[in-house]
## 1
Amino acid sequence: MDEHYATLTDMMTLLINDVVRSGGELETHETEDERAFWARAHTRAVFAAIEGACECFRMQAFIAEANKIHQQVSLGKLSVLAGETYFVTDEGEIRAQNLRMPLLAGLLLSLNSYAEAQGANHRAKKGHQWHRVRAAVSVRDRITHPKNLKSLDITKEEIEDVDFTLKWFLNEVAAILREKGCDLPPLA
């Protein structure tokens, strides 16, 4: 088993366990303060799992792109997959800097680059429920960068969008892995 796959599975196991635990805790707590805490914890756990997976997927796609032997390697694609961009200083020197990529664009890039690196034809698409994914990201952004006390509240409907986003993401990953030949159980 290669090192990157082991890293991905170990990290995803830990993060998915956080998602399951926080989701279970959210359902069992009845006081408003406890429910609010677990709603925030659950939202953070879901997006940590998604963003962690995307980081691993981009790394695997970067390695696959860098190891192309008989095909032309795209330097721009390598740069984006590495999370870097370049600029020229006033002294005329080239310098690297971290690439700032919007979360949803990075999510689609990661899934599609990973699929390509795995030789899968599947491509993640926005679809007719994409507004729910965008809504969940807005919740994540709001609680990660709160502007006031109210911004830390998460409604039941917003948690449903967060859970929908996780399920959408896991279904996209499963589609790639199934095409690659992995035998996976259906998601509930």
Note: The longest helix spans residues 32-66.
## 2
Amino acid sequence: AGYLPFLRRDPNTGVISGYSVDLLKAITDPLGVTIEWKETTWDNMKQDLLLGKFDIMVEPIFYTIPRATQVGYTRPYAYFGFGVPVVRKGENRFRRIEDFNDPKVKLAVTQGVTDQEFVARKLPNANIKLIPGNDISITLTEVLVGKADAAIADVPTVLQFLKVHPNEVEALFLDNPPAI
């Protein structure tokens, strides 16, 4: 799906690179295995794997019990937080993650990612706007354009978004994410 710094497809050359790519090549090169890349989406990845459209997924896929009942995982090679809200700069209504558990608060979440499962479990009363696709920054943009009060994402994605939009948005609970 393209999750920096783990996997990236260069839009000009189509070349795939990143930490997960390097790790996979280190495993497969000595075996003489050729890699054929297949693209999927966050909300289709598990189903595509189960249907045999590909053999393995190389991006960081958060381990959840529902997913683990159907697919196998390697040992983790990265840990990071998720469930981090991004809000407009100066927003002061939210002091705890539970403050988002309100039907009057519109929360943007990328469909198919672990943050969707987190919100469903921890914030069942929130007014959820599911955003399809692979680019989680599109979900965060919902806050910029005023279509959501907040957007929920993982720490690496939020940090990248904050670099691009430092004067418009801020992240809550970055130092102590609601989930890891």
Note: The longest strand covers residues 84-88.
